[in-house]
Write a structure and sequence with these properties.
Blueprint lengths: L1 E7 L7 E8 L5 E7 L2 H14 L2 H18 L4 H15 L7 H14 L1
Length: 112
């Protein structure tokens, strides 16, 4: 009879999860691979986050914080353009409707 331990040695999307399994017959530990989809990994991580203590949540956040900031960061030059456009809009600068912009695009394509 084999007993599976919850010790996961590797967790990566598309990669095998390696479990330590103790064989009662031989008394030795062996590894067993099990593949998980990204969706299954996300679900397990969500469940873990829901039940784990505050220290582990803070550790996970610290580990992923830099990656999350890069994911949502906007380059400074693009941010400047957004600010300038927002200021113009708030000052009442004339705007163009979606229909007008589509019409202008069609006209440019037609003339090209």
């Amino acid at each position: 009879m084999l007993k599976m331990y919850e010790t996961e040695l590797k967790l990566a999307a598309g990669s095998p999860l390696l479990y330590l399994i103790h064989s009662r017959k031989s008394g030795k530990f062996v590894t067993k691979e099990r593949y998980m989809t990204t969706a299954a990994i996300r679900q397990q991580l969500h469940q873990y986050i829901d039940i784990t203590d505050e220290k582990r949540i803070e550790a996970l956040y610290t580990l992923l914080q830099n990656d999350m900031e890069q994911l949502y960061s906007i380059p400074a030059d693009e941010l400047q353009i957004l600010h300038e456009r927002a200021e113009k809009y708030l000052k009442g600068s004339p705007t163009v409707s979606v229909e007008e912009s589509h019409s202008k695009i069609r006209q440019v394509r037609k003339n090209s």
